[in-house]
Amino acid sequence: MSFDTLMLAICDGVAYASLVFLVAVGLTFVFGVLGVLNIAHGSFYAFGAYLAVTGGVALTKAGYSPWLTFPMLFVAAVAVGAILGGAMEKFLLQRIYAKEQVLQILVTFAVFMILENVQRLIWGVQPYFMSEPLQLLGNVSVFGITYTAYQTIFLPVLAVVVLVCLRYFLRYTAVGAQILAVTEDREAACAIGINAQKIYFVTFIVGATLAALGGALAAPTTSLIPGMGAEMIVLSFAVAATAGLGQIEGAAVAALMIGLGRSLAVYTAPEFEVLVPYILMVIVLIFRPSGLFGVQQLRKI
C-alpha cells in the first residue's frame, strides 16, 4: 500500500468512525441507563438524515443562504430526538421497563420495522443527497492528500466535542449526577427523591438525538436510501459490543478501531469491507466477553 493510499484510508476511516461513534454512543448510553437494547435506534439515524436533507434542500430552494444547511443538521437531530424519541419513550417504553429484556428487544424491533415503512411512505425509495455542507467547507491538504474539510476536520472535531460534553454532563451537572445515581441503584435513587421516570425520559431523548445527529451529519457524505438505518444499527451494535455495553469512552475507541479497519479493507481487500467490523468484534469478544472496556458482573443463580 502506498503512502497516499494509506492517508486516504486514514481520512476515510476517521470520518466514518466519527459518524458511527455518534450513533453507537447514543445506543450504549441508553442501554447503560435504561437497560434497554433499542433496535429502533437505527430508525432515528435514518429519520435524522432524511429530515436534515429535506429541510436543507427546502431552505436553498427558497433562496436562503446555503450556510443555513449547517444549523439545519442540528435542528433535524433535535427534532427527531425530542419528538420521535420522546413519543416512543413516553407511550411505549415506560410500559415495558419491568418486563423481560427479550420482550423489550422484540418491541423495539417492531417499532424499527414500522418506522422503516413510514420512512418509505414519506420519502419513497429514490435516493436523496445534499452536498452544500461538503462544498461550503472546501478541501484541505493532509500530507499531500486533498480531502474534504467536512470529513477531515468538521466530523472528527464534532465527535470529540460530543464525547467531552457528554462526559462533562454526566460528571458535573445535577441531571448527570441523577442519571448516574439511577444507573447505579434505581430504588435507592427513588428513595432520596430522584424522579427515575423523568431521568429515563431525558436519557432516551439524548440517546435518540445522538443517533439522529449521526444521520444528519452523514447526509452530506452519502446518498440516502431505504435500509440505511438497518445497516447502521447493526454496525453500532458491533461497536457497542466491542467496547462493552454502557462504555461511553470505549465506544469512541471501538468506533475508531472499526472505522479504520473497515477503511483499510476498502482500499486493500474490498470484498472484506463488510466483514472486518464483525471479525474485529468476534476477536475481541473471544478474549474479552465483556468487551474491551466492559466490566464483568456477578449473576445470581
Outline the structure in words.
It is found in: Cell membrane. Belongs to the binding-protein-dependent transport system permease family. LivHM subfamily. By secondary structure, the protein is mainly α. It contains 12 helices and 2 strands. The protein has a two-stranded antiparallel ribbon with strand order 1-2. A hairpin with a 2-residue loop joins strand 1 and strand 2. Helix 2 runs parallel beside helix 4. It is globular. The model has no long low-confidence stretch (mean pLDDT 88).
Query: Which of globular, elongated, flat, extended, rod-shaped describes the shape?
Result: globular
Secondary structure: helix percent: over 70%
Query: Which class best fits the helix and strand makeup?
Result: mainly alpha
Largest sheet: 2 strands, antiparallel
Number of DSSP-assigned strands: 2
* Tally of separate helices: 12
The oligomeric state of the chains shown is single chain
Topology as H/E string? HHHHHEEHHHHHHH
What gyration radius follows from the Cα positions, in whole Å? 19 Å
Distance between the termini: 52 Å
In spatial order, strands of the major sheet run 1-2
Low-confidence stretches are: none
The proportion of residues in beta strands is under 5%
Mean pLDDT: 88
